[in-house]
Amino acid sequence: MTEPARWTTTAITPQLLRGAIELEHTEHGVLPHRLPARALAQGADAQLAMAESQPSGVRLAFRTRATVIELDALPTKRVYVGAPARPDGLYDLLVDGRLTSQGSVSGGRTLTIDMAAGTTETRPGEPGTLRFDGLSPTAKDVEIWLPYNETTELVALRTDAPVEPAPDRGRKVWLHHGSSISHGSDAASPTTTWPALAASLGGVDLVNLGFGGSALLDPFTARARCGTRPPI
Fold it and tell me: In this structure, are residues 39 and 224 in contact, taking their beta carbons and an 8 Å threshold?
């Protein structure tokens, strides 16, 4: 496989992300959040904190002529004691609005959950690399939808051509709240959750505040919805 003669590394900033409310800077990169830190501080609920950090509806969105795209990411994989292993989370690549490719990032951290004992254990891991190649060299709008069920720290974005934020198409923003079905439940991929499908059909930009295990509208979530400016 021929490597690009020169890589362009682009900082992952709010301008390149859609569907996130806030970005947390971490040791490795940035972690998209679907609730602001002030809301999480009012809740102090581990289940909600885990759910909101899983980037359902969050996607990188940019315009480029790149034929090769690499994304380094540090996922957190969940393991439930006594249950079968879960598949790696899927990333969906959309080019000019069409699903073009899918991939996963192996490795990462492991969060082991023992529901009977009510305990959790986190084991460290290393970032992995997602690669999409063979793309057209023409200018195009690219979206990389992150796994809806896998906490994902974004480490680095590399391309073989410059990247700029996706242009504003003037679409309305749909700020949606719900529980596990809205979060994604057992959808096949991030663009096939029902909010993602509905947003695509309706021609709106999705911000998904569907949190698995949180069917009720917590007061701090309501305040976040009412007090949040248009999300990143």
Answer: yes
For CA atoms 20, 186, 43, 49, give the dihedral sign: negative
CA distance 170 to 205: 10
Rounded distance between C-alpha atoms, residue 104 and residue 5, angstroms: 25
Residue owning tokens 């380094």:
72
Contacts of 152 (CB under 8 A, 6+ apart): 31, 32, 54, 55, 73, 74, 75, 76, 89, 105, 146
pLDDT value of position 230: 46
What tokens appear for 123 in the block? 């084991």
197: left (phi over 0), alpha (psi -120 to 50) or beta: alpha
Beta 109-114 vs 69-80: how paired, if at all?
Answer: parallel
Q: What is the pLDDT of residues 77-100, one digit of tens each?
A: 999 999 998 899 999 999 999 999
Helix (H) or strand (E) holding 129: strand 128-132
